[in-house]
Specification:
With 138 residues, the chain is α+β, with helices and mostly antiparallel strands. The protein is built from two helices and six strands; from the N terminus they run E-E-H-H-E-E-E-E. It has helices at residues 30-50, 58-78, and strands spanning 3-13, 18-27, 81-89, 96-100, 109-112, 119-124. Strand 5 (109-112) and strand 6 (119-124) form a beta hairpin. Helix 1 (30-50) runs antiparallel to helix 2. Bound molecules: zinc ion.
Length: 138
């Protein structure tokens, strides 16, 4: 089953101030992805079949939906998760923010704070080892 999940992330601004945030997303397992892909294929091909009955437009619509079916199904099969939103604190104006996310968004992501219009970046916490200590070389 598709599971709603939360990921603790860091919100940074361009002056390296940071604050905590939470990314809300839905993760799809392989069975979900297959189901979503087949659903998309069936829907596209049903629309293609229905548009057969629309005069003239069917010359375009039927092949378009017939071809779109596998393309949409493939892109939905490849989609590992569906990002919803980021909630957290803006490091620039220190207020709570909620930023909607697109499905195709990936971290790190630069965006603008919806409250103060400042440039902010969402970063995964695990990527936060900028000054990672070097391994001793003996
Ligand atoms: Zn702000």
């Amino acid at each position: 089953m598709a599971a709603k999940q939360e990921l603790v992330i860091e919100i940074q601004d361009d002056n390296n101030n940071t604050a905590d945030g939470t990314l809300y997303f839905t993760a799809y397992n392989p069975a979900d992805r297959t189901t979503r892909a087949i659903t998309a294929l069936v829907v596209c091909w049903v629309i293609a079949a229905v548009t057969v009955f629309i005069p003239i437009a069917h010359f375009v619509l039927v092949p378009a939906f017939f071809i779109a079916g596998p393309i949409v199904a493939f892109s939905r099969f490849r989609q590992q998760d569906s990002k919803e939103k980021v909630e957290g604190t803006c490091p620039r104006h220190n207020g709570p923010i909620t930023v909607p996310m697109e499905n195709t968004d990936t971290l790190p992501k630069w965006t603008y704070c919806p409250e103060c219009d400042g440039a902010i970046q969402f970063v995964e916490k695990t990527l936060q080892h900028k000054g990672a200590p070097e391994q001793p070389s003996h």
